[in-house]
Amino acid sequence: MALLSSGSVALAQPAILPNPLPERPPPERVNLLFCGDSLAQGMFLALNGQLRRRETVRVTNGTLHATGVTRSDEHDWPTVSRDLVARHRPNLTLFWVGANDFRPLVVRETRSRFAFGTQAFADGYGRRVGEMVNHAVQAGSRAVWFGLPNVRDAQFANAVRQLNEIQQNAAIAAGAVWIPTWEATSDPQGRFKSSVSLERGPRGFRAEDGVHFTEWGYRRIAALFFDEVENIFPELAEPLGRLTDT
Q1: 30-234: what fold?
Q2: Closest Cα partner for 104 from 96, 94, 115, 95?
Q3: Does residue 7 surpass a pLDDT of 50?
């Protein structure tokens, strides 16, 4: 598998592609849209400078920190993502969201709330993920959904695993490619990993809060997709390009 040039991230869990994945002609330029919470925002900020220097890539920031899929009364991601796709017409949409999604799922129309861990939560949450992906796919965009990473707090980590399962099933069913990040952020025993061993010594790649990443860490996680794009969306490989360790 393709790796970063220094301190690489092995894609221990390969990307999961929906079946079938239709072939498309290569575009002259990749219109790339980032959607999600502070995780997606951090990735956008870490990659923006590098990607904007590429004439064949146009980057749009559709992220908003402190949001989530559960609270449609605060930020309705299915509606927001629909509007972003319609406005910017991306041919590649990257989703990364969920750090705030352990609160009850709010359904404004019925004034209902469903607690995390219930079947009603799973059904409603999965439906919203599917809507987000479907808006992108139906508009002609390739869709990529990054799974949530391992986190420092063990109890929180168990909940993250549950949310990853819901997201993965819904995203793939709607036509997105799933990029797992759990193993890339865990040690061999499955525990939270805060740093990476390099030839010159360990280097931290997680933020102090045990959830987010350093700038370098975001680039490492992004490389799980960017450095494998030729095997996922071959038509985007040349205009999008790989990431390199800088």
Answers
A1: Rossmann fold (3.40.50)
A2: 115
A3: no
